[in-house]
Write a structure and sequence with these properties.
The structure is a homodimer. Chain A is mostly beta strands. Helix content of chain A is 9%, strand content 46%. In chain A, strand 2 and strand 3 form a beta hairpin.
Chain lengths: 121, 121
C-alpha cells in the first residue's frame, strides 16, 4: 500500500526556521519542506543543483553578481557550485529538491547547519 | 542571470490533457506540469521513480492490488517498475518529477504517448 504525503500537513509540522524536513524521495533526490525567515548564510553546494519552489510568501535569492526575487509559485534551480544567499524579509514556505548528498550549508558549517539526520527526524 | 519559472504561468500554457511540459531541471531530474482528465493507460517505468504532486483537483492512482486517492496538496512517488493507471474524474493539475530517461507510457506505446521532444516543445 502506497500512502501519499500532504504538503500542507508537512508544513504544519515544521516549527523551526531554516530547518528542512524530508517529506519524500524520487530516485536519488529528496523532497523537503522548510520555513524561512530572515537571512541565511552564503554557501554553495559543490556537486548538487538545488531547486526552490515558493509555496507561500517571497524569497530574495542573492548571487554574487545579481539578485532574483522569488514570489509565490516561482521555481528556481540554483546550479551546483553557485554561491547563493537566501533572504526572506517575511516568513516564506519553500519546497526543496536536492540529492541526499547535499550539505545544508555547503562547505560552511555554522550553528545553523542541519545534518541529513536532523532533517529526517 | 537566473530567471525563475512560475508554476501557474506554466499551467496556463498547457492546452492538451496528458501531455506533460518540461518547466525545469534539478540534477538529472526534470520538473514537468500536466493537466489530466479521464483515464490514461496502464504502464510502468522500469528504471525510474515518478513523483506526482497534485496542484489542483484530484487524481485516483490505481495499482494492481490497491488504489490511492490523491487530493490537492498530496504527493506520491510511484516506485520504478510498479504498474499504475492514473484516472482523473475531473480536471487535475499535476507537477511531475522524473528523470529525463523516463518514457511517458513506459514500454507501452499508444497514440497518447508523448516523446521527450514533445514535452520540450
Amino acid at each position: 500500500m502506497f500512502s501519499p504525503e500532504n504538503l500542507m500537513a508537512a508544513f504544519d509540522r515544521v516549527t523551526d526556521y531554516w530547518s528542512p524536513r524530508v517529506i519524500g524521495q524520487v530516485n536519488d533526490q529528496l523532497l523537503k519542506v522548510a520555513k524561512l525567515k530572515g537571512e541565511f548564510v552564503w554557501h554553495a553546494h559543490e556537486g548538487e543543483d538545488e531547486l526552490f519552489y515558493i509555496v507561500k510568501g517571497a524569497l530574495r535569492m542573492e548571487f554574487e553578481d545579481h539578485t532574483v526575487q522569488l514570489r509565490e509559485g516561482d521555481i528556481l534551480t540554483v546550479p551546483k557550485g553557485v554561491r547563493h544567499f537566501p533572504v526572506a524579509d517575511e516568513e516564506c514556505w519553500v519546497m526543496l529538491i536536492e540529492p541526499a548528498s547535499t550539505k545544508h550549508t555547503g562547505e560552511v558549517v555554522t550553528d545553523r547547519t542541519r545534518s541529513l539526520q536532523d532533517q529526517l527526524s
